[in-house]
Design brief:
The structure is a homodimer. Chain A has about 350 residues and is an alpha+beta fold. Helices cover about 45% and strands about 20% of the residues of chain A. The first copy, chain A, has twelve helices and ten strands. In chain A, the strands form three sheets. Chain A has a five-stranded antiparallel beta sheet, sandwiched between helices. Chain A has a three-stranded antiparallel beta sheet with strand order 4-5-6. A two-stranded antiparallel sheet of chain A has the order 1-2. In chain A, a hairpin with an 8-residue loop joins β1 and β2. In chain A, α1 crosses α4. Chains A and B meet through β4, β5, β6 and α10 of A and β4, β5, β6 and α10 of B. Chain A binds a DNA duplex (30 and 30 nucleotides) through α3.
Chain lengths: ~350, ~350
DNA sequence: TATTAGCACTCAAATCTTTTGAGTGCTAAC
DNA sequence: GTTAGCACTCAAAAGATTTGAGTGCTAATA
């Protein structure tokens, strides 16, 4: 059986009403919509069909209907038209920030504030290259290495050393490091490369080993997938997600970057949706404890084709319209910022 | 009426039992302790006295007794002897970290993990002086200022500039900045000082203004009271703290650094306790929504007399013994680290 | 005089019972 | 195909009952 127009209308009304109220929707409620002009009995018949088709379900015999995952899916794919107005207020919220890290933190925050859901943002998976390295003497026993990576990601690393270095030594090391590492991709920087570099330069000393060790650590850190989250406590606002213990587990999961990257991996696999917005409803994602949640992710693009993800985690009964349109606006804004930034760097 | 020994013993047993079970404690339970050899009737009489004195209270007529704030207070001050054993496992948990920021984050984390309460740690209020400043060219339009502060607190600041600088300029600025600012206290670095410095050096340019602006911002940031927290979700584990909405408010408060610094201010005012451990029980702290919580804070010391605070936020029914002893051990360890570090810096 | 056994009493919490009402499916009429 | 009507269902709310841990008081005891 295909869904005819009337069934679609009724399904849409049921889901929209349920999204608003959170209560199972009965036939009487739907029959009251003027433009429908159908009695509750007719609605009941239609509802029985919709239930048979798996779009809605009764929590118990004498209750109204609530959407199934399949119902939500159909709603998101076919029935929901997006809100377009909300654009005005949002565009002012993102301040220009020239450090990617701070920018993405802010994105997560703004989004959580706007939607009242938990949000997560990953840095783009761009090829991270070293802009430059700066080695400085902090005191007799300590060096500081600062590594600036394309996108102004900055890593500081304290390097304890055994030997006292004079400024000339430090300068020499600086030149050595930058000669070899400037422009190098972080993935390429490993022990072998550094060994090669040592050989080629003819330099060798224990100090150099210590310094390289520090650089490797910093590079390793910089190369880790960063995930920025915000609004975790919003999860508490939606009791349907579960009892305290379930919510608590979910919250802990949300604090665990490992788990989150796992989640994002899973939810950004297939890019079949328009505008790169992905909606994962209920059990469509297989992470445990999240079967009562939906996850909406959007992909933003950097000029060189690198992409990052913005995600929203909320209850299945989520305001999909708002979330999708907010995400769209935000990715557009982000694309914009990255492209403008690129422009500044190239032209100015 | 004064508390005689027997009353003290009984009060102690009541509170200790309540801390374990979380259930109101009845006379029968207490009378079963062998070394007491009293009937429940006698205990009842004593309990009636203790209630009249305000140390315990009945949640309802036919229930056992639970401690009042006054009861907890007496327990903490006079009845509780501390656990001393737990030391062994803890001392290995703190890795040596040479950046204060990372160290304090780790302290918060370790403490939360050990106690299952929410924890907060403030950086010490030491006189922050500039160790050195490093200005580097990121690209044509951008400088990076790195400020290293005593205690290896590192601040990075991106400074956009209008004019192209060559390396010589940057070097010149570096020397200028370090000549004037090395060893300066952050509080002293403000616009006036910088203006004076400009005058005295005879340097003047728009670039310098932009650089100084950036430095001032970074200094300002570095000078803010940093609070590191961990284990916020532990709050969810103690249902007695309140229903979801109350817990949620508490959690949000715990994410708000402003609020937390307010809280810490309040709870570290009077230092009358031994070993600088402060216990604030229930309504003893006046922050709203925290009347069902207790806060235990400890003060750690840096060599120059600067101090910082470690705090634990948990339910009134908290394992005070464990918390106090854990905090003591941790402050000792911290004192140790700071003193050793100082040693390294001075001697090696 | 302090302690205790005994007993009637209290009251929250657990359990069971009843009522309510929103909602359904089915049928017969339109 | 639509709808009015009606018997039926069942979760949730409200009410009634039972249970049991705990109390305070009194009178007997050491």
């Amino acid at each position: 059986m295909e869904l005819d127009e009337r069934k679609k209308t009724i399904l849409k009304l049921i889901i929209a009403t349920y999204l608003e109220t959170g209560e199972p929707v009965g036939s009487r409620t739907i029959s009251k919509f003027n433009d429908l002009n159908l009695s509750s009995a007719t609605i009941r018949n239609e509802m029985a069909d919709l239930e048979e088709l798996g779009y809605i379900v009764q929590p118990h015999t004498s209750a109204g209907r609530i959407p199934t995952d399949k119902g939500y899916r159909f709603y998101v794919d076919n029935l929901m038209e997006e809100k377009e107005e909300a654009e005005v207020e949002k565009s002012t919220l993102l301040e220009r920030v020239d450090r990617m890290e701070l920018l993405l933190k802010q994105v997560a925050k703004v989004l959580a504030y706007n939607t009242n859901y938990a949000t997560l943002v990953t840095a783009p998976n761009y090829r991270k290259t070293v802009k430059f390295i700066q080695l400085s003497k902090v005191d007799e026993a300590t060096l500081l290495a600062v590594i600036v990576i394309e996108g102004n990601l900055i890593k500081n690393q304290i390097i304890p050393i055994d030997t006292i270095l004079d400024n000339e030594d430090v300068l020499k090391f600086n030149i050595l490091l930058n000669t070899f590492l400037q422009g190098a991709s972080l993935e390429d920087i490993n022990l072998e490369m550094i060994n090669a570099m040592k050989k080629q330069s003819g330099e060798y000393s224990i100090i150099l080993d210590q310094i390289f060790q520090g650089i490797i650590e910093a590079v390793h850190e910089a190369n880790e997938l960063e995930i920025y989250t915000s609004g975790a406590t919003n999860i508490l606002k939606y009791p349907e997600i579960g009892d305290i213990s379930k919510t608590s587990e979910l919250l802990e999961k949300f604090e665990d970057k490992e788990e989150l990257s796992h989640l994002l991996e899973e939810t950004t696999g297939n890019k079949d949706d328009s505008h790169d917005i992905q909606v994962y409803i209920g059990e469509e994602n297989t992470v445990s404890n999240m079967e009562d949640c939906s996850i909406v992710t959007a992909t933003y693009k950097m000029p060189e084709g690198a992409t990052g993800t913005i995600g929203i985690l909320g209850p299945k009964r989520m305001d999909y319209k708002k979330v999708v349109s907010t995400l769209k606006n935000l990715t557009i804004e982000l694309d914009d910022i990255f492209n403008k930034r690129k422009g500044v760097n190239d032209d100015g």
